[in-house]
Design goal:
heterodimer; A: Immunoglobulin-like; 3 domains; 18 strands; B: alpha/beta; 7 helices; 7 strands; Small_GTPase (chain B); EC 3.6.5.2 (chain B); GTP-binding (chain B); disulfide bond (chain B); endosome (chain B)
């Protein structure tokens, strides 16, 4: 996610002594934390009173804090990260030594602190940020820029790629590793490399570390995390970590000749990672229902296992540690079992988990083969039990690939269900990408890990690089090929795996992670949401499939074969084969919908929907309902209102809407004025920022050679209008006066924006010239945009700029408010048995939103409000929590309204609005209305029954298929007739 | 310390201008000692102390003692550490805001510190105890007690005149804060609302959640 290059502490000013002092403080803090988490773990079981528990664990505080600092690191962690970063910078050369020394020092204390201090070790957040910032490694640079770009499709797909429910966690973990397996041609090389490395590692690895690192940190951390409220945000952040570690391992091992030192670093980093993972786990569990505890455990379980995994490879655990682990796992397994019963466990994982746990108890060697399926933990245990056979474990990791493939299948399943055929290919594409992304995550992680290593060991770097060219191409190709045919879903998955171990940076790490994160969150919710028995069964079926593969004697071999087969088979066949499996999974779809949805959003929104919408717009008369706007929330809806189609266009003018009128003008562009006149001519203006008044000034001097609007009269009545994008809603537009009957108007007017420079610099100035027609519509005469970030502010002179025709992309960008991913479900009364539910229920599961516009430099703090219209009373009002500073917030918030009769669905409308939360006011960002869009509610004409086609389609589908989740990705839009409500 | 042999881990944080005596204050509190040597704190530091807290119930009944482990974060007052120290604000449950009674500016800056807290603390209205330190240096005193009291009242926070040198009011200030935190904790858990996740709102007839929402919005517990 967007962790915080900006919030990263700059410690460059510290002297060495100061720096060391800080490190010591952090170390002490870490010890205290460890002690405390020990304590909490001890007492947690014995505490029955929830309230008391919250107090004693400090959870009460974390809960409150989470409302404000959801995704933020603890101060100490932040510092730790920053410290590490600094170290990296300053002590590259010494890295080896340092790491060594640090090991010695820090080993005894909990693994976490040590790792945190370790330069090579990276906290999850750190990694992200470091990737951008730190990129000392030459590898990264390419990825960095991309990170900032939003690739919705990728993200979504990634999310999709990861399996729903808890399973995801494990899968994520595994997947990177399996990527290492390399189904692709590269496989052979990578494997061999891995093996070699593995040997080295084993021999060289210091056993002492492993124990502490593995056992304690995970427990402690988890508990720690558990007590803190689970924030989806947090989860998000960390989710990618999970993937990271596993991938790292293979990579590092490959890359490193000098294992000893590296290992140290490596392990530590693992510790960090694990920490994050565990956090993540807690995050997952968060859905704050009674289930909480249970879920937490479950999720933790998976997660923690992952963390163990990396370490386990290198380590030969001591008996104590082992025992504790075992206990821990068993506990986890039990809990999971309970879960399953209680919830009807939607997630495919659950069944497996227990098994893995059991396996771990048995310590059976044979397990090694099936390991890939099972949690890492079992693997690690195997290792422990059979220290001599380090090889195996390693292989098992690789094998995990199969598992991932199964995951893919699951995803695939979902797609058939989609009612919109056109979507399928897209979604597939998305998926493919997603998979790739997931894998790429691992890569990214590797990269993240590498830089440090590289610093210490320049030599290996070169070897890595050499790999790059080969692998990256393969990845990309696979993605592309997938696109064309929907059926080809398989191939992408398969192809993807190859990349994992390669570790090249070709892929954009950040995005991927994000996706993964969001996935997990989604998954979590899913678990909660879905509970029917059949689903369980189906899940079991699904899970079985992968297992089957894994179970093969030589798993290692099989995985590759499998992959190859997949490659060779035509996509169609594959799809069919899968379909067989998938059919069962019908209900599963629900579970997986989240993934699907995710894929869908990007593609659909951007590719399909936008044009469609554009069309709509062009057709439509702006439904300019008399909206008065407060500056903050006002919006004019230009969405087509079905009922208003017949309205006359006349009402619309660019003048009319005060603040949010960008949409108006866009509208007007679409509505036919656009293009009626060719843009031509130039505009002369100057820009300045008045530091004293904190004011952005646009000195508009004049225009010349403007287009003629009224050909008969050879006349135009031009005026100049400006917006700051994307901040239009807040800052509004500024206009000059209208100069009549001239093509060369002279204004000499200053348009001013009160705006902080920092904010200004992330804006684009959009300056457009319009013909003012008081009777009809204003006509677009031309525009130009200036990216203020790159503006030379020393240039205060008047300059001429050519006016350009309105670019569609620009206008659609203006309109783009983000896409909401959600699922809705209607449960008719009595559908679950006698009087269960007593009345119909509408479930609205707000999953996440992608690409929210950022109105402020600090980002967007969004939340979602929900009303069921026509009821606008507080009774029907629900809202999600605020997710701070995330343009892609994951809410995973399920809202249930009951009291519905089936007939009510026709007359009700679920209105979801997204707001940017600020202290004094909330800014409307966009919304959707789920209803039939008839314009009438209970026979009364209402302006809010204006659902778009997509929205209506979702609602209809929900009505037609009761008790099923209908997933949707709906573009946020402005809402007509929005009532004022706070 | 006997590890983990306590009931609550509470984290406080001392802040205020440079050289107002934060470190000395905490040192006095934890160790009962004072050193007049000025050693500027580097970024952050912390001290620990174990105390027993007995809640005075409304009915005057003294409950069983709660064993509290205090982690007292000390912060650098120097501006150059500002970004570093503020990052720690959010993790503290309560704050000791110190100024120097002999230094007018340090008192004037309390307002800034307050706003820093509002911005960076875990919530907008955290528990704060204001301490005018160095009240042993009576002859050098420049901040009037009434001014300080007035200020504290305005913000609704307790005020103490303390001396890290002789220990005057030091424990009292910390214990007051402790009391505030313990009470807030109780309020918090009593009120615990369902946040996020599955909210079962009974559609057209649920008001409880609304109230919860409101509370949430206020972020106070």
């Amino acid at each position: 996610m967007k962790t915080n290059t900006d919030t990263m502490l700059d410690l460059s000013f510290l002297t060495k002594e100061e720096y060391e002092q800080l490190v010591k403080v952090l170390q002490r803090d870490e010890e205290l934390k460890k002690k405390d988490s020990d304590r909490i773990r001890r007492i947690q079981g014995s505490l029955r009173d929830e309230k008391k528990k919250k107090c004693i664990t400090g959870e009460w505080f974390d809960d409150v804090k989470a409302q404000r600092f959801q995704e933020e690191l603890q101060g100490s962690d932040l510092l730790r990260v920053s410290v590490r970063k600094k170290k990296n910078r300053t002590q590259n050369e010494k890295a080896e030594q340092v790491s060594d020394g640090e090991h010695g020092k820090h080993n005894p204390p909990p693994a976490l602190p040590a790792s945190s201090l370790e330069p090579s070790a990276v906290l999850p957040t750190d990694e992200r940020s470091s990737e951008t910032k730190d990129n000392n490694s030459s590898e990264e640079p390419e990825t960095v820029p991309k990170l900032k770009v939003k690739l919705p499709a990728l993200e979504m797909s990634v999310a999709a790629a990861s399996a729903p429910s808890e399973k995801i966690c494990s899968q994520n973990n595994i997947s990177p590793a399996d990527s290492g397996i390399g189904l692709s041609p590269f496989l052979s090389t990578s494997n061999s490399q891995l093996l070699e490395k593995g040997q080295e590692i084993i021999s060289s690895s210091p056993p002492e570390f492993s124990e502490k690192d593995v056992g304690q940190p995970s427990h402690l951390v988890q508990e720690d995390l558990c007590k803190s409220t689970s924030n989806s945000a947090i989860t998000n952040k960390y989710s990618h970590e999970e993937t990271g570690p596993p991938c790292k391992i293979p990579v590092k091992s490959c890359a490193r000749p000098k294992l000893d030192l590296v290992l140290g670093n490596f392990e530590q980093s693992n510790g960090d990672l694990s920490k994050t993972e565990s956090q993540h786990g807690s995050g997952l569990s968060s859905p704050e229902t009674e289930n909480n505890a249970v879920f937490k455990q479950g999720s933790n379980y998976t997660i923690s296992s992952m963390k163990d995994k990396p370490k386990s490879q290198e380590v030969i655990p001591g008996p104590d540690h082992f025992m504790s682990l075992k206990r821990f796992w068993e506990k986890g397994a039990d809990l999971i079992g309970e879960n399953g019963d209680a919830f009807g466990d939607p997630s495919p994982e659950p069944p497996k988990k227990p098994s893995s746990a059991e396996s771990s108890r048995r310590y059976s060697l044979t397990r090694g083969r099936t390991l890939s399926i099972h949690s890492n933990k079992s693997q690690s245990e195997d290792e422990k039990s059979v220290p001599d056979v380090p090889y195996r474990t390693r292989h098992s990791h690789q094998r995990t690939v199969t598992f991932s493939s199964s995951e893919d299948e699951l995803i695939y399943v979902a797609s058939p269900r989609k009612s919109i055929p056109s979507l399928i290919p897209r979604s597939t594409y998305g998926k493919g990408k997603g998979l790739a992304a997931t894998r790429s995550i691992s890569i990214a992680e590797c990269n993240g890990g590498h830089p440090r290593d590289e610093e210490s060991k320049g030599q290996q770097r070169s070897s890595k690089k050499s790999k790059l060219p080969v692998r990256s191409p393969s990845i990309q190709l696979s993605n592309k090929t997938e696109l064309p045919s929907p059926t080809k879903e398989r191939p992408p998955d398969i192809s993807v795996p190859t990349t994992p171990e390669c570790t090249e940076e070709c892929i954009v790490p950040e995005k991927v992670r994000r996706n993964a994160d969001s996935l997990q969150n989604k998954v979590r919710i899913l678990v909660d949401a879905v509970t029917s028995e059949d689903e369980k069964e189906q899940i079991a079926d699904l899970t079985r499939e992968p297992t089957f593969i894994v179970n093969g004697e030589e798993v290692q071999m099989e995985a590759p074969d499998y992959a190859e087969d997949a490659n060779e088979l035509s996509p169609v066949i594959l799809a069919l084969a899968r379909a067989g499996v998938l059919n069962n999974a019908r209900s599963m779809v629900n579970i997986y919908t989240s993934t699907e949805t995710y894929n869908k959003p990007q593609t659909i929104t951007h590719q399909l929907l936008e044009p469609e919408r554009a069309k709509e717009l062009s057709k439509s008369t702006p439904a300019l309902v008399s909206e008065t706007e407060s500056d903050t929330a006002s919006e004019v809806s230009f969405q087509l209102n079905k009922h208003r189609k017949t309205l006359s266009i006349g009402s619309h003018s660019s003048d009319m809407a005060s603040v949010s009128s960008v949409s108006n003008s866009v509208l007007s562009v679409y509505s036919g004025d656009f293009g009626s006149v060719d843009a031509q001519g130039m505009v002369q203006f100057a820009l300045d920022y008045d530091e004293k008044n904190r004011e952005f000034q646009i000195y508009v001097a004049q225009c010349k050679d403007l287009a003629v609007v009224d050909e008969k009269k050879e006349r135009s009545d031009p005026y100049v209008k400006t917006y700051l994008l994307p901040d239009k809603a807040r800052m509004g537009k500024r206009k000059t006066s209208v100069k009549k009957r001239t093509l060369n108007p002279v204004y000499h007017e200053v348009l001013r924006y009160k705006i902080e420079k920092m904010v200004l610099l992330i804006q684009k100035l959009s300056l457009s010239v319009w013909h003012n027609d008081p009777l009809g519509r204003n006509s677009f005469l031309g525009e130009m945009e200036i990216d203020l970030a790159s503006w030379d502010w020393s240039n205060r002179k008047l300059n001429w700029y050519a006016l350009k025709p309105r670019s569609l992309s620009a206008s659609s960008a203006v309109d783009h408010r983000g896409v909401m991913y959600l699922s809705i479900k209607y449960i008719p009364p009595g559908s679950l048995g006698m009087k269960n539910p007593p009345s119909g229920e509408v479930h609205i599961w707000v999953k996440d939103i992608k690409d929210l516009p950022q109105l402020r430099p600090s980002g967007v703090d969004s939340f979602v409000k929900c009303y069921v219209l026509p009821d606008t009373s507080k009774k029907s009002y629900q809202k999600t929590r605020v997710i701070k500073r995330d343009p892609n917030p994951v809410f995973n918030h399920t809202i249930v309204y009951d009291g519905f009769h089936t007939e009510d669905l026709k007359d009700a409308c679920v209105e979801l609005t997204v707001w940017d939360h600020e202290k004094l006011t909330n800014h409307f960002l966009g919304g959707i209305r789920l209803g039939l869009g008839t314009g009438y509610s209970y026979g009364i004409a209402v302006d809010w029954m204006d659902s778009t086609q997509e929205e209506t389609a979702s609602w209809q589908e929900m009505m037609l298929t009761p008790s099923e989740w209908i997933e949707g990705s709906l573009p946020l839009r402005s809402l007509a007739g929005r009532r004022k409500f706070k | 310390m006997a590890d983990g042999d306590y009931d609550y881990l509470l984290k406080f944080l001392a802040l205020g201008d440079s050289a107002v005596g934060k470190t000395s204050f905490l040192y006095q509190y934890t160790d009962g000692k004072f050193s007049s040597k000025f050693i500027t704190t580097v970024g952050i530091d912390f001290r620990e102390k174990r105390v027993v807290y007995r809640a005075n119930g409304p009915d005057g009944i003294v409950g069983r003692g709660q064993r509290i482990h205090l982690q007292l974060w000390d912060t650098a007052g120097q501006e150059r550490f500002r970004s570093l120290t503020t990052a720690f604000f959010r993790d503290a449950m309560g704050f000791l805001l110190l100024f120097d009674l002999t230094n007018e500016q340090s008192f004037l800056n309390v307002r800034n510190w307050m706003s820093q807290l509002q911005m960076h603390a875990y919530c907008e209205n955290p528990d704060i105890v204001l301490c005018g330190n160095k009240n042993d240096l009576d002859d050098q005193r420049v901040v009037k007690e009434e001014d300080a009291r007035e200020f504290a009242e305005k913000y609704g926070i307790p005020y103490f005149e303390t001396s890290a040198a002789n220990g005057n009011n030091v424990s009292k200030a910390v214990e007051t804060l402790l009391d505030l935190i313990m009470k807030r904790m109780e309020r918090c858990v009593d009120k615990s609302w369902i946040a996020g996740g599955v909210i079962r709102s009974n559609g057209h007839s649920s008001t409880e959640h609304l109230e919860a929402d409101k509370d949430k919005g206020k972020c106070s517990c």
